[in-house]
Amino acid sequence: MSELFDAVDALVASRAALPPPAERKRLRAAHGLTIDEVATALKVRRATVSGWESGKTEPRPPERDAYARLLDKLADLYPAAPADTAPPAPDAAVPATFTAAPAPAEARTLSTGQASEAAVMTEAENTQTPAPVAAAPAAAPRPARTTRTSSTSRRPGAKKAAPAGTPAGGTDPRFENGPLAVVDVEDDGTVLAYCTGGLVLDVPAKSIPTLVDWTLREAKLGQPKLAGPGKDADPLIVLTKSALERYGLPVTLTEEEKHAGRIPEGHKVIKQLARAEWKLTKRGFGPWARIYRPATGSERACVQLCIPSWNALDTRHWGEAGQLPPAELARVLGVYASRVMTPRGSTAVTGLELMTALHPPTRASEPDADGKRHSEHNPGSLGKDAIDPMNFPPCEVPDGHPVLKDLPRFHVRGPGEKLFEEAYDWARPMTDAECTLRHLVGIDVNMAFAAGANGLNVGLGEATHVKAPAFDPKLPGSWLVDLSHVDLSRVKVGKEWVELDGSLLPSPFTPKGERPTGPAWYATPTVAYAVELGYEVRPIEAWVRYENGRYLDGWYQRLRDAYLATMADLGVDADLAPEDFLAAMDGYKARDPELAIVTTAIKATVKGGLGKLRERPRGEGWKPGQPWRALSRPTWRPDIRAAVISRTRMNLHRKILKHAAFTGQYPIAILSDCVVYAANGTSPLDFLPYRDGKPLPGGFKLGINPGLVKHEGTQTVLWGEEVRERFNAPELNLARYIKDGTVTDIDNGE
């Protein structure tokens, strides 16, 4: 009898009810499953599952029963929504049909419009919780995916559910499908565009020119401007390897092409673009290609391409993002775009572009007598024209700059000729008392350089040369002044004079922590700190900028909010108690590796954007004394970079002094924003002076806000002594290796 029952069961399984092919695909996509994942689970080939979803083939036992079971469970999770009979939106050119799964749990949202220009706290350790921003789609379970059918089969009157992670009720209808799409090709040849929030679009384009045209005409991709007189962000299209093959582009670049940063001008795709009257920027068709037609009036026609397999997503800043499946990559880039901006290139390029997006160089004037408006300078911006290279102060520019062309060829500028504001790289031998302790504990300042930019007054225009000026801490500039008389053994901390062991402290005035020996050039925050420590300063000369403002405030706010919102999604909130904060930070990246990539990219945007303010020549046949491409940008401003680094270093030194004055503890090593102390325990709480959960005022405070600190790593004192002895380097910078303890070679300062 059991054999008969088995036969009956097999007969039932052979006719297990399955939904239509399109619904099978929707259910898989709604749960964020790839075809590969389903194929692996059912132990069939990828092409087999693709055939089931396209309707070309039907599953047979025993896979059919398992496949039906999978789809049945997914249907319970993501029931098909009934068609909405509301009339279409007035601006909808073509009505669309959407089959949407229920959206994930309600998300916190904020409009992606103009960033606040309001004043912010000047203290780097601002602990205010930022305004909420769009919440990232959850990784587990995957965000619901909405699939839009081709325009030929759209049903009038249907309404699309808002993609998860986008602003509710504030979506610009021009960009209703988000800022970007990852274009991929299925095994059956179907071309799909994976957008943010789980939306998938069918792509009819059969070439790069028609893909660009489709993106601008039908895809409804892009992002609204961040500031009133600014420009909307161009849509970003990311091409996977399969898409590159489909559109006739190489999957990888040759060594020659990598060196050139582009494919040859004679490539067939470039010829196709030229025939269709599309243009490329001077950088050509490379990892971040921009394809455009000259603007007509206010209409822009430009699409940005991102090609991960050409190393568009540098692994130092984007981790393994370039290896992610299309939907996951769209999520990572989409969260970054919604919270920072649509990527315009590397994180460094995007950091610089964000400054301009928040402070557009021009605005429309008031109507003239004929009622016409004209383009005029936008106050608070850096303007549309670069500063003439020959008008830069010689002390502020790097070696090889045109303003230095008359210097002898092998002349080395010293501190009396060159502004040298850089991050700390300092270390000292441990004292006998420190060697009796058990551990070395490193703490790291969160987004230290962003915090240094917060509330900082920087120059907006050209510099004016002044002889024997009176120092003004509110006036941005570069000052030639002798600070060698500042004695760290006796300084003002707050309003009181304190006695310290100056031999255990780095000088705040040099990156290597050495005490200056004579006049040197310093940015305004460095000189102001000398005054704060209780010492008189008498500048010999200065280059000052009377046109100035807090240019970076909005930039700081947006990056801060992006970082805090993403860390909150990873379970690290801004208002956690110290013990809870340390626990939350332990393994936070593993909770959602995709969002962890976003945090890394945000931090790289800060450092890279500031670095771009003093971009050096990048090949291009450049020779010392000649101008290079970056000098033609209004945002080539080494003085702003120097001011931010100066203030960041002073912020850190101020905390170190407060800590030393209160606890008698001194740092052993400092590398940029990481500080190492000796302690008897393994936690920062073993040496940070918390009382009743409250930190030392003006000292180090644990927390995720920019300017606050987190645990960087802990090693033993024996480890530190052994490493220094092994390399015969008593001042080896242990802050460089405190994170994991791995020392692969002698410390060379790089």
Task: Provide a concise account of the structure shown.
The longest helix is centred in the C-terminal third of the chain and has 26 residues, at 638-663.
Mean pLDDT across the residues is 86
Describe the global form: globular
What order do the strands of the largest sheet run in, or round the barrel if closed?
A: 1-2-5-4-3-6-9-8-7
Detail the poorly predicted runs. 83-132, 139-166, 746-750
Described by strand count, sense and barrel closure, the largest sheet is:
9 strands, mixed
User: How many extended strands?
Assistant: 24
End-to-end distance, in Å? 78 Å
Percentage of residues in helical conformation: 25-40%
Structural class: alpha+beta
Radius of gyration: 29 Å
What is the number of helices? 21
Strand content: 5-15%
